[in-house]
Amino acid sequence: MPHVYSHLQSNIWLFSRRLTVLGIFLLTGVLSSAQTTLTFEGLKRTQLSYLSINLENVELSSHTDTLLWNIESSVFDSVSLLAFRQNLVNLPPIQGASHTVHKMTVDGKVNYHVHWEMVEARTLSPLFGFGGVKGNVHFLIGINDQHLFGKGQELMAFYQNIQGEHNFLLAFKNPSINNSRYGISAEVRRYAAEEPVYFNSGPANYLYINQNVSLGSSYRLQPRHNLNVGATFFREEFSLLDEPDESLGAPVFLSVNKLLLKVGHQIDRRNYLSERVSGSFNSTISQVVLNTNQEPFLIAWHEFLRFGLIGRRGNWASRLRLGLATNRDSPFAPFVLDSQLNIRGSGNRVDRGSAQAVLNLEYRHLVWKDRRGNFSAQAVGFSDLGTWRSPGGPLIELTNGSTFRQFVGGGLRIISAKAKNAVLRLDYGLDVTNAEQRGFVLGFGQYF
Questions:
Q1: Which stretches does DSSP call E strand in 30-152?
Q2: Low-confidence ranges of the chain (pLDDT < 70)
Q3: Domain 34-120, second-level architecture
Q4: Domain definitions of the chain by residue range
Q5: Is 124-444 CATH 3.30.930.10?
Q6: Which residues pair with 384 in a beta bridge?
Q7: What is the pTM of this model?
Q8: For labelling, which of 27, 107, 236, 421 has a CA lying 20 to 30 Å from the CA of 167?
């Protein structure tokens, strides 16, 4: 009897195992054949091909008005739908999205259809900037279209005046050639401004002019995760504005042609929630500058941005930028102290270095929002800290306090919900160690 019972138990276990395997096989077959179709209403400018290359696990279907979402029914739930919606509204041309789900079972196969009601954002935006300190004023006007032809192509053009010097930029970027992972970019630019150049015996004021042409290409590893390479041919000119002083050893005029080669890597994990932002952004760029007069010059920097939500109205934002270059004892070092770039209130290119560490901290608080949700305002408090290594100096200068600068201040943001980063920005910064050093920066878009 014990032997018969044991044999019967063994047969039952074997039968249940085979039944389990068969069940898993059948379930896997159902899941693998499950299909989720997506349709969109409200898209006036955006092409479906743009959505297919910028959303994970999405592809064009044989129907011209439908996308296929490759997701198994076992993970098709409200969480996955909310994540998909967030990925939609993270795209520059999308302001809002809501969905309706339809479930259908045909011959034992589960199919889902999700219909999306879309609200497009304005992607043609003005560019505007104005700011300065005493004797150092700049302004900028231009336009930027982030969604040219409805396929995410970008066109930017602006004019910038810095203390009477005329500057311009014309740039075009196509991140996806024929709906592929490959992209191209091109840029023409002129930058000119009065800049102090620091020699061992003292500073000298120069008119600096940089005229360049750039070409680049990119490869999309995943949506919002890119590699890019590029080349820039540029001409630099330095013209002495002060009376010549032999004791400084400052050249009266210097002109050189250079070639810059670069490679970059970006991962964008920011989530846009109306006027607030959460998540992170990482960017690493390495460059080598070549010319016939000197050895190759290397420049590299990494930028890390982090955003967090505080309560229902607060938004914490931080940016850490670390840079390192060939430590050549030259007054024309690549990293600059500048109100428009890193330290608000400091002025325009007031110092240079061959290495830098900059930390920008900012708290944004929602103080007003209209009833329709079209406009809002944020009050901002910030602290900008930076330190530089002087050209040819030791790396310890980054930490010993000799080149440390900190500006604190406040500002205001007027925000339109109709477009991403449609923000009118005003900041006023004050040096914590010298109240005489202060200035304001007015611009379009968040500072970072």
A1: 35-41, 58-60, 67-69, 94-106, 109-120, 124-133, 136-148
A2: 1-35, 72-74, 133-135
A3: Roll (3.10)
A4: 34-120, 124-444
A5: no
A6: 360, 407
A7: 0.85
A8: 421
